[in-house]
Amino acid sequence: MDRSESTILVTGGAGFIGANFVIQWIANVGKPVVNLDKLTYAGNLANLASLSSDARHIFLKGDIGDTPVVAKLLAEYRPCAVLNFAAESHVDRSIHGAGEFIETNLAGTFRLLEAVRHYWQALPAGQKEAFRFLHVSTDEVYGSLGPADPAFTEHHNYQPNSPYSASKAGSDHLVRAWHHTYGLPVLTTNCSNNYGPFQFPEKLIPLVILNAIQGKPLPVYGDGQNVRDWLYVGDHCTAIRLVLERGRPGETYNVGGNTERTNLEVVRTICAVLDEIRPDHSPHSSLLTFVQDRPGHDRRYAIDTSKLKRELGWQPAVTFEEGLRQTIRWYLDHEEWVRNVQSGDYRNWLAVNYGRR
Length: 357
Description:
By secondary structure, this protein is an alpha/beta fold. The protein contains 13 helices and 12 strands. The strands form 3 sheets. A 7-stranded parallel beta sheet has the order 3-2-1-4-5-6-10, with helices on both faces. Strand 5, helix 6 and strand 6 form a beta-alpha-beta unit. It is globular, with a radius of gyration of 20 Å. The mean pLDDT is 93.
């Protein structure tokens, strides 16, 4: 069976990365997507507005931990693949309250795997052979690197340092175990820091963009020298599609942008672009505000993408400078989206996280 000719089930497809993937899939592959999302604070149907009248996109509100709901979807739509984007993903939120992260990322992944395993085991031989379960994870499971350490490879030991990364590490281990114990044909991707359209503005890049254009302080943790590898979300989605199509079952693939920047460099770059295209509060760098570092803040992440390039021919197509400029322009051009996500829970969260720093 050709997987490209059949429906896929995407979980967490109304979130930042998931929505970008669904939109890219419909545009480039054109096959139906069943999209299951719990619509927590970061899940936003407005992210999928461009697909509102597209019959190939079927949205259902639901939780990956709700086994009867997942089993019903699998039985009804008979997907050839399940892609799991559903996750609680913000480190700071996990520090303030780890319970939701354990429930969604660990227990939810377990229940999803079990529902998928029972579905997969009952498939006819040809469909069973072609089926894939792709689990989207993070480089944070690997821990922190020193300044001169080589980048994370797929063989790097897991050393999670936050409740978030620990919950994702646990989910990765479950996915691996379901492959080795039950034979479920799984694929795992571990990505570096994503940025781009639809990202909820608690994360560094959209937070700085929106604060800067409103003349608000630009909070930078500690000394601002924490290093991250930045990956444009469109490039990430392309990599996931390649891994789904040609990745080897049971394998893990690291996805990164090959772009290490300190947090301070990222903030200053955003300020420079805004000085050029929206000079209202220039110089925007005058809004920089160093705040107390968060507990257990990993110093450096870096991704070695050589396996993905060697096996599947993937490499990032968008440079950091190009992607950042596109992202800034997207937020400036989508004021209504911004207004909607900045209401209610988001404002409450900013008060909790930054109010005491």
